[in-house]
Specification:
Elements lengths: L16 H9 L14 H9 L2 H22 L11 H7 L4 H6 L8 H11 L5 E6 L4 E6 L3 H21 L6 E6 L1 H9 L1 H24 L8 E4 L3 E7 L5 H14 L6 E7 L1 H22 L6 E7 L6 E7 L8 H16 L2 H7 L4 E6 L5 E6 L1
Parallel strand pairs: 2-3, 5-6, 8-9
Antiparallel strand pairs: 1-2, 4-5, 7-8, 9-10
């Protein structure tokens, strides 16, 4: 085995050409869009809702938990696996480009906790992270016995993650709702029958849509026992016929007299959204993964004709003494990314606007092309 050559800094390392190929092969699996966490109003209304309303939200939240936690698994490469030589090459690439080009993948606080919940096999937990007020609430839907047994392990798990991320300023709250859990368990049989009926409704809807060459789930945005929501291009000339055919066929098959609602979209804007979706993912996940950026939320809309719009909201107020420094760092991080060759290839000639706002709704910076 050859002797080791010591160097005083990474700059002295000679990087073999194979390292560049190695970096390109790291984490080829793309990052999925981060599931957007429900904001304060949703969580507060969850607490106020009646038993039956709680059950529906429990289902939604556990589904969100499962999706976001599943997305986290396999989507993160610890720095422990990155050699100094790889780190040297990566250091010359803007941070958000590393995410965009799948050279590194990072976890937000929410995803890291969700992954830990899965790994520890904690049962029926809905997670809520309030970045503005700095608290994390883990709502357990289980028996009192299970709750008392698991309360400390859950809290310790979250505490350990916060400590490792140097984000120990969060208060950790663990609560339980055994009544909702009991009711939820009682409706499983009914849910199976409901799901079967919805499956039949879906088959009928897609059968009609297929006649008009709409074969993708993209063209439905919600199907229930009472209503069918469709999403069709504004240029489609047969919208009325499609609605009537679906309603008639559902009646003929004794699946109910359902309301059929059509929402239209501009195909041109749809194409623009496709160019920006991974751009947005990289910005949203990349910013939220770094505590120093003080991010509350990152969102987008593709409904504005003049540009694709990205909103970055801080937990800091416009009067905070550190806000200008934080905004400047965020602006540079985003600009370095959006002006890179890789991002420009994706954006092409499309217009965008990125607005960085304080928690008191003041626009601190607007980035556009």
């Amino acid at each position: 085995m050859g002797s080791k050559k010591e160097v005083d800094s990474l700059d002295q390392l000679e990087v073999p050409q194979g390292i560049y190929q190695f970096i390109d092969e790291i984490a080829k699996q793309p990052i999925t869009q981060e599931t957007r966490e429900q904001v304060d109003d949703d969580w507060n209304s969850f607490k106020r809702n009646s038993r039956n309303q709680k059950i529906e939200i429990i289902r939604k939240r556990v589904a969100i938990l499962s999706l976001s936690a599943a997305a986290a698994i396999g989507l993160f490469i610890s720095s422990a696996f990155v050699s100094p030589a790889v780190a040297q090459v990566a250091s010359h690439i803007p941070y958000l480009n590393l995410i965009f080009e799948d050279k590194i993948q990072v976890k937000t606080l929410e995803n890291e906790i969700n992954q830990a919940i899965l790994e520890h096999d904690f049962k029926n937990i809905a997670l809520y992270v309030n970045r503005k007020e700095k608290f994390i609430e883990a709502m357990v839907f289980n028996t009192e016995e299970y709750f008392h047994e698991m309360k400390t392990p859950i809290k310790d798990t979250i505490s350990g993650i916060l400590k490792a991320r140097n984000e120990e300023e969060y208060e950790i709250r663990v609560a339980n709702d055994p009544e909702a859990a009991e009711q939820w368990s009682k409706i499983d049989e009914k849910s199976i029958e409901t799901d079967k009926r919805i499956d039949e409704i879906e088959k009928t809807v897609y059968e009609v849509l297929g006649k008009y060459n709409y074969n993708s789930p993209r063209h439905t945005s919600g199907i229930s026992l009472e209503r069918v929501n469709l999403e069709l291009p504004i240029t489609e000339p047969n919208i009325k016929n499609i609605k009537l055919e679906i309603k008639e066929m559902l009646k003929q098959r004794e699946l109910g007299d359902l309301e059929v609602k059509v929402y239209t979209y501009d195909p041109g804007l749809e194409e623009r959204g496709g160019k920006f979706i991974k751009i947005f993912d990289s910005i949203a996940i990349g910013l939220k993964a770094k505590p120093e950026f003080q991010i509350d939320s990152v969102g987008f809309t593709n409904n504005k004709k003049e540009h694709f719009y990205i909103s970055v909201q801080l937990v800091l107020k416009s009067t905070d003494p550190n806000v200008d420094e934080v905004v400047k760092a965020i602006e540079k991080t985003i600009q370095d990314f959006l002006q890179s060759d890789e991002a420009l290839k994706s954006i092409q000639n499309e217009k965008y606007q990125v607005v960085i706002s304080s928690s008191d709704k003041k626009k601190m910076k607007v980035i556009s092309n």
